[in-house]
Amino acid sequence: xxxxxxxxxxxxxxxxxxxxxxAWPTRPAVVICFDGCDPAYIxxxxxKGCIPTIERMMSQGFFTEALSAMPSFTNPNNxxxxxxxxxxxxxxxxxxxxxxxxxxxxxxTDAEPMRAGTIFAGFSQAGANVIAITAKxxxxxxxxxxxxxxxxxxxxxxxxxxxxxxxDKVTELVGRxxxxxxxxxxxxxxxxxxxxxxxTRKPDILYLSLSDYVQHKHAPDxxxxxxxxxxxxxxxxxxxxxxxxxxxxxxxxxxxxxRADGSPNVLYLGDWLDQAFGAGATRVICPITDPFVRHxxxxxxxxxxxxLDDGIDxxxxxxAIRALPEVEIALPRAEACAxxxxxxxxxxxIAVIAxxxxxxxxxxxxxxxxxxxxxxxxxxxxxxxQKVPFLISHALNEDYARGANEMxxxxxxxxxxxxxxxxx
Length: 424
Ligand code: ZN
Ligand code: ZN
Known about the structure:
Alkaline Phosphatase, subunit A; Gyrase A, domain 2; seven-stranded mixed sheet; alpha/beta; binds zinc ion; 16 helices
């Protein structure tokens, strides 16, 4: 599984992971995956003066907008960031997929479906002190795959053991109980734990992956969102004060997907296909579906259509989906995989992406809108949520500054830039 990892024998060697070479950090390298931080959250908080540290990073370090991996969901992007590679390489293209051979759905949220080694595994096997902290525990299991060192989640901070997580008594270290899974503190706890461990354990690489709970609930200019941005900013200031290089990217953006009256703006593609092509002739998979997350009703901007009835004319079905006003793009498998760097064996027959502001669902009966608790649906998954901030506390060297100008950066370039791209 980790064949691609070349072991460095001395700390001054570079570490090779998935064909990319990473220089050994000369000072702690902290990468924050700011979950759901659409560039609009940075812009709104900047306009209100809530994020002085991030503003300073923008002016004195490096800032641009990058593109996330597709679909613009949490798991594929966190895994892309820690592998430095797109889903075609590591295999994780959603929370679950339909196995076309067996007809069974298979979860992709833990380490088992990953086909590539991580930067953490590479560095920790080469002797570096690597620490990974996530908001959700499921993600921790995937990201910690193959690495040695400390890896835990805020969600399960109260049950960490030396044996499994490389650390115990995390709640004592942070000075408060494990946060509720549906709270802004889930993210702030990740950052506070990171600060404490940067102070006490001197990691070479520290990865802090937050939760998008706040962004699903609040628009960028809402007071709760601005407060959250200010709280995050204060903690970034602390990380910098401790001498770290800090890189910040998001896994995806976030958009309002509601109608003017506040109801979710959803196309239930499964219901529509049942009507147009016969019940059960197709199956719609919503890869955002997550039994551990409840704030989006399993609705996002990207779904996969599987054609189960052999008698259906694929071209006709594709044309019919493309003609729907809610649909921005519908691509047959091979084209979707080529364009979005996706693994073919986990893709449906047709990948469907909604226009900005529209969510795609399977059948209405499959989605529990009570999860939204009457709030506007805000979600992600499509091309409209692919733009993410790409921010580094320190200035780039000439090579990387030129590269950043000439090519479209991806969020999974962040470790390359933080480890290889800075002025010495
Ligand atoms: Zn996310
Ligand atoms: Zn989300």
